[in-house]
Amino acid sequence: xxxxxxxxxxxxxxxxxxxxxxVGRLGRYTEGGKRPMxxxxxxxxxxxxxxxxxxxxxDDVDHKExxxxxx
Length: 71
What we know:
This protein is of the alpha+beta class. It has helices at residues 2-10, 16-19, 44-53, 56-59, and strands at residues 20-25, 37-41.
């Protein structure tokens, strides 16, 4: 899921594996429930690029429930 969202927003030629350092779920698992994801990026430049383009998600019908927050 994180892979498709980041590739859709990023729009660059870098590969997902080169950009993302770690992906993990937060919270306790409950069947049928949703948990937030924490994605750690390797480069600050990529984070700034994604944060600048996160408005693309507003137009995407498939990813309406996705929120991006910089920590």
